Amino acid sequence: MNPADASALAFDPSRSDAQVIAQVTAVADGALADAAFRIDHEGHYPLDIMASLGEAGAFAAHLDRNGARFGLAIDAMRAISRRCGSTGFLAWCHDVCGLYMEQSGNPALGGDVLDAHASARTFGGTALSNPMKALAGIEKMLLRATRVPGGYRVSGALPWVSHIARGQYCGAIAGVYRDDGSLSHEVMFLLRFTDDVALRPCPAFSGMEGTSTWGVRLDGHFVGEDALIADPARPFLARIRAAFVLLQAGMAIGVAQGSIDSMLEVEPVLGHVNRYLDDRPDALQAEFDELGARVAKLSLTPYDGSKDFLLDVLDVRTQGAELALRASQSALLHQGARGYLMNSAPQRRIREAHFIAIVTPAIKHLRWEMARLSADEVPA
Amino acid sequence: MNTAAAPWKQFLCRACGFIYDEAKGDPDSGIAPGTRFDDIPDDWACPLCGVVKADFEPYEPAVAVSCGQAAAAPSRDAGIVIVGAGIAGWSAAEALRALDPAVPITLVSACAGDRYHKPELSIALGRGLVPQTLVRETAAQAAARLGLRLLTDTFIVGLSPALHRLRTTRGTLRYTRLVLAQGARPALPAALPPGLCRRVNDLAGWSALQRALSGASRRVAIVGAGMVGCELAEDFARAGHAVTLIDVQAQPLAALLPPLAAHRLRVSLEAQGVRFAGSTQVAGVVVTAGGGKRITTAAGSTIDVDEIVAATGLVTDGRIARAAGLAFERGIVVDARTLQTSAADVYALGDCISLDGAPCRFIEPVARQAGVIAHAALGRPHAAYEHRHPVIRLKTQALSVVLHGQPCADGEWRVTDERPERLAMQQWRNGEVVATLEAGSPPQRVAA
Fold it and tell me: What residue spans define the domains of chain A?
């Protein structure tokens, strides 16, 4: 592809939020909604639809080069997740991968390479679940790196990494060990799935099977300086952490909105009995609106490094997961047997909502971290 | 070696949590039951997630820990939720329960929530008190007596007044009425690192200091010669410690007292063995090679001590109130008559509030505030709250200092009586007495 083609396909920052959302929604409500059952049941990995969503501008708005319009990126993720939570998760993976690449400041990960990613002509995800938990003290770092001329050699295995495949890539972090075996620091890099990286099928999950999730094993895999995102990784992670978590709100509110849709869908025929249920659509809609407004406000300053901002972000992320759980359950109760059918959206959203509640950072991790941040530091 | 003699061990996959049990082996991967982990081939992988053998670690099941709150089962019944288990929070709980034996009450506390009398912390060390003797009733006992649900070690993280929901680190609570009594937290200047400076704003902070100072005479620096700083300085000196009291002002309690009275206070503190370092700005703190702490002043001098206590004032954390859209001005703004915040069904009392733009962090008004809020929250008629500036009584024992009224910065202090054993003064402003002050030998030892 020559540069002229690339720029023609890059996100046009002059497009308004409404224009972008209209185009993203057209794809989400059309091709994606039609494919949602196949994605869920056959584990279909919808790269063709991801490409259409990318072309519509779903994965570019949050980048600095496009005006850091986080609210728009989250709203696009909401529109996608409303129709298919699994693809909403792909959208988040893709968005944060683009964010890593841009924020790295590494020229080899910017320019046309980033344009191709942001418009979903190439695809990549994120393998930060383990490192995020490792750096929070919840578990141990699984990838180990040693310094070699021109880069690092990385070994180790990650159990499940999504939105990856041969020829794709993802952001990853490894602990860097000195010759004497001691841990020096952590390095973050773009892991490219070349032939020497083993991809192992995962056991079947109960949902989210269309996310192309693999076990990854590296054995002395070389990472060159052209693939480095941050070295050391910790200051970089501290800077992007709130933005990383905040973007996930798009998945939560999208699944909640889809659930409210399902309740309203049966209101004409079942409203006379559904009014005896808890968590009616109007109550959930009020929560959805309140949460959406707070997310939109936080989206204006995604790189605010203060502790208060991080707490606010962790709070909306938690609230989003809780709302998705309650809304998806209530949607099934509202639909009754028709919502329990294998091809119905409510039963699928139950599984999607639970994924949102357990994917890193899970509700329990979020509360653990909020408690840690809320406690006063005192002398030992 | 007879391997059967050693107990079977378990190994945990660090990636996915799968447990390899030597007794059971991994028959699906060709590892027979009874295969020691060490004897498994190195190319064996986790049957669940595929990570390699090296990513397993020895596993010993942890003993399940209960949070120990029998009454903490989550309830979907909305009721009155109180945030904070200090004097204000417990006072609100008492007042509510006295009026209504049945209304569901949930009390959320960031700390253990045990009941103690906070002012006592200022004089407890000199009396040889220990944390157990300061606790008058444990949180669990109080919760059982009052029939309320208790959530301890639980932080509030967000509030949605329109939805009547309070989010905490142990889940989201619905409420019909919310009472905020979360207090204020020590305001630490940047020069005082939180990891090196103790604060005495709650029982946990005092208890940690009490442990650190027990068993020997220590060198203690108290930064900030306000009321708490002066009280602690005298108390620690009585307990046998070498106290340096540091303040940017030339005299102790200079923000409140006229120079004549402040001088008497200083003389009294020095007679108790307190070294007063006035006009001194702390520039930084470092740990010395011996494990002590070295304070550097802006003037370049150093003070070496074992412990540093920050008594540099309090500040109300405004994050949650602001994010929830509550009016906030140096504290949660409340209506001076109803103590309702700017949000419907949300009330506040104690150290966290501001009345007419100013906090009022004294004990005396708290019980009356709790009574007003309890009536309002339960829809019972009650007279409006009337704020009176409390009498200020310094809990120093060698010199009694009592201040009536509300001294202002631009008033004129006049001496009405000046003898070695007694100083009395009045502050005049616009032709009126706005405050009176008495400092002298205490008529008797004031009880706690």
Answer: 3-123, 129-232, 248-374
